[in-house]
Amino acid sequence: QVQLIESGGGLVQAGGSLRLSCAASGRTFRFNAMGWFRQAPGKEREFVAAISWSGEPTYYADSVKGRFTISRDNALTKNTVYLQMNSLKPEDTAVYYCTTDPILGPTTDWAHLSYWGQGTQVTVSS
What is the pLDDT of residue 26? Predict the structure, then answer.
């Protein structure tokens, strides 16, 4: 069983920054990609960013390129993925979910993924 626990969400003004963290524990897949999706009210869950097990390559949705950076720490005691979000916009407001799978990218269908965190709310005020 895999547990994914997100943290770091909150309320921020437009132009501000937040860093999300996702710690994986339990039956972890150290050679899996890890990534982030988000879901705004009334909208479909959408891909945000993903990172391979080695740290390269990384993938981003066009809407966040140049503003968000995904990274990971594969140390045995951490196994954590981060999402640094800068220059936040009101349209970034959503619940952000961490996930893991052997392969993740912009064309990944979220409905086919098995492991999700509980989600963390990000709210950007204008």
Answer: 77
